[in-house]
Amino acid sequence: MSERADRIIAALRSGHDHLASLAGGWGAGDLTRASGAAEWDVSQVLSHLGSGAEIGLATLEGALEGTGPKDADFNKSVWARWDAMSPGERAEAFVPANEALVARYESVSNRLGFPG
């Protein structure tokens, strides 16, 4: 893979690992406190990131397999599932969802030839 792609993926890994370690230590009060996003609590930010990771992974897989992106109903179903989770469930689900996306980027073959 190109040096640039490697740096980007390394930054994604570092960001994921850091946020996952923080999220693992947050209690109910931490998850329901206000976030930097005016209308979301911390768990809703994790929901946004986790659902985005699921959608991003599906998009990446579609690109790699040549099947293209999922339809809008797929995205809506992912968002609905995450919206229905409790704050604690969002924190628990964020880590594996984002891990799966980062790990998939890390596993992408060098033969894809990303530009430098």
UniProtKB/TrEMBL annotation:
Residue intervals of the Mycothiol-dependent maleylpyruvate isomerase metal-binding domain: 12-109
Descriptive protein name: Mycothiol-dependent maleylpyruvate isomerase metal-binding domain-containing protein
GO MF term set: metal ion binding
Originating species: Streptomyces acidicola
